[in-house]
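[Q] Does anyone have a clean structure-token version of this?
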Amino acid sequence: MTEKNIAQRTETEAINMGLFAITWPIFLEVLLTYLINFTDILFLNQVSEQSSAAIGTLMPIIVIPIVILHSLSIGTTGVLGQMLGAQLHSGLSKNYLYTVVFNFAIGLVVMLVYLVGHQHIGSWMGLDGGMNALTSAYLVIFAPALLIKAVQIGYGCILNINGWTRLNMYSTMLANGLNITLNSYFLFGRKDFGLSGVECVALASAISYLLGLVVVMYFVHIKKGVKFDFSGSRSDATTYLKQTLKIGIPATMEPMSYELNRFFITITVISLGALAISTRIYTLNLILIPVIYSQAIGVGNRILVSHLLGAKQHRRIERQIKQSILLSTTGSAAMLFAIWLGSDYAFQLFTQNQEILALGATLLAIDFLRHPAGAINMVVVNSLVVSGDAKYPVTLSILSMWLFCLPLVYFLSITLGWGLIGVWLALLLDEYLRCAVCLIRWRGGAWKDSSPVLA
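[A] Here you go.
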């Protein structure tokens, strides 16, 4: 049977939708997810600078379990997507249930850890007594929201893998709207709820997360009619978990290593002085939308590739990769070029310092050169990982971060005295090195035989 005939028999809803229709809701969903935390900090800034600083410092601790769950969901995407592409529908209802239960278990552990340690986490991060008290008050109310978010991510995987990405976007939009409304009401309304400012913000976020969960549950079970199959055995659950973790664990190691690596790079930037610190923060804020755009293309491509892998349409996967790379690189490059052209005006949103404006424009120009390689990496690495060939790109990325990028950052910025420009050039060279090696790996074709589902 020809690949064309196979394609006619194995078209899924996601494949029929295509990359653009799947991706644009993901872009808006990710952007809105960033805005929830940003909104909380803005409202806290109206309470006091100390509150804003305390919870802003706590945010990495809040984000880490969410990042881990999203990374583990790459394994879910790989397994469920390949099952859909291969028309293996009989086990889907069981695996949908296992996905939600697994996320619930992780969320429950995280919630309990944060509730037990809420009085000490701030002090462990180096905050003084007053700021530690603020983080403690925040965590007591917000910790259950992490359990809610964990379950929501599980349900979100079910929607995304079927191509129903727009429904996830709607739930995030509603959650954002409620978060802003509740923050305004709790903090500035006439009624006194007997809560401090940080407690009001934590409660608003927790309630908005709960709304997001209720909405995705409605979309999954009522609108789309998905039913869970509770008849599965322990063996079925174990098999599914092994398949997802084969992809998910390596996929989780890379972002965790990335965050730790960027922490050490930040230490180097701090040693360069206040000007470098401010310029780095402002530049990263300005390039956030192009980065999210490329991330969204990478996720949308991952969904389609998983379906096509299940259908064994390898030639079509090659075409899909090329389309994704073209859309990701051209779109992000156009955004970065526009930001660079208007950099003087863009940086003036944050500062009037002419040294920052000049240095920031140079960094944006380097970002314009670097980001095509980054955009390609997001597409190709996602494709390798979801195919089951996860260990190679993850190992490469970790080795490159620590053995090439970090030493080069120090050499260019400190030893040669190039400062923040040296940091940006090191990141550029690291991105292109990983891009070249990952493309070679992809063209080698080992991914075709790496599937944990169809092997």
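[Q] Thanks! Anything notable?
[A] The mean pLDDT is 85.
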